[in-house]
TrEMBL record:
<dbReference type="InterPro" id="IPR005907">
    <property type="entry name" value="G1P_thy_trans_s"/>
</dbReference>
<dbReference type="InterPro" id="IPR029044">
    <property type="entry name" value="Nucleotide-diphossugar_trans"/>
</dbReference>
<protein>
    <submittedName>
        <fullName>Glucose-1-phosphate thymidylyltransferase</fullName>
    </submittedName>
</protein>
<keyword id="KW-0460">Magnesium</keyword>
<dbReference type="GO" id="GO:0008879">
    <property type="term" value="F:glucose-1-phosphate thymidylyltransferase activity"/>
</dbReference>
<keyword id="KW-0808">Transferase</keyword>
<keyword id="KW-0548">Nucleotidyltransferase</keyword>
Amino acid sequence: THASLHEASSFVETIENVQGLKVACLEEIAFRNGWLSKEKLKEASQQLSKNDYGRYLSELLDE
């Protein structure tokens, strides 16, 4: 329903804002499992560097 979709969206937004994590970030999942190299993660972060998602990927490289 419309209400449940809105509730789920709000939940994801809250998690991302409070914890500073992205929900279902495929690049992060792949990187942490060793399926994506640091070089490929860097490429992805550079391609998306002008938005929050790209900056999030860039922060993963600094961990």
